[in-house]
Write a structure and sequence with these properties.
alpha+beta; PH-domain like; 31% strand
Length: 138
Amino acid sequence: MQKTYKSKIDLWLLILLVAAFGGPLVYMTVREPHWFGPVIWLPLTLFVIYSVTTIRYVIAGDTLLIRSIGFRSAVPVRSIRRIEETHSLLASPAASLDRLEIVYNKYDSVLISPRDKYELIDDLKSINPEIEVKLKHG
């Protein structure tokens, strides 16, 4: 069994990225018409947008794979002890503040933001029914 879940992406994050990267790109193109600014800034902008929009969570067999540019993790589903809703600001492979904290092994955890968190939780619990789930809503 292999199933992929896309990350939820907050609108405010997209607006922030457009402002942070698009604004300087427009400025460099219009106010400072040098070729090297946009040539360097445009690929950087595209890379950041690509890295945010390609965050994926995959259940492959009995392993939860967390994939994004610069972050790769494999969590054995049977080692997951708890899944809890959170809005933590900690850096993580998540493009939304509507997050799930996956607590596994003895002291490990990772924050993710699947678009359909209830489906992901159900699929993880079908592999490991012992997972404790703490949801604030739903």
